[in-house]
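ESCALATION

Customer reports they have been waiting on this structure for their group meeting. Please prioritize. Original submission:
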Amino acid sequence: MDVQHSPRPSRHVPRFPNRIREYRLKAGLSQRKLGAALGRGRNAVSSWERGLTRPDVTLGVRLAKTLATLAESLYASFYSPAKDEEQGNAAKQ
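Update from on-call: job pushed to the front of the queue and completed.
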């Protein structure tokens, strides 16, 4: 089965935006192969990619290692200041 490279529209707004799909495609892995490498199913990988759920910390590190990247690059929004914090800091200045 070939890997689908075209994005599909989602009915759901991602709660956890990420770049897992992008890195998975660069690695040439299907969702099934990535899930098998991590001891999870294809449905779990799909859910992570769509931003509906996220892997726990240890699995996230293994995921990043399998995709030959850093965990920070998969979930960049976790490492940037929250919008509420930015607005609060701007009001204090």
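Sent to customer with the following note: The chain has six helices and no strands.
Escalation resolved.
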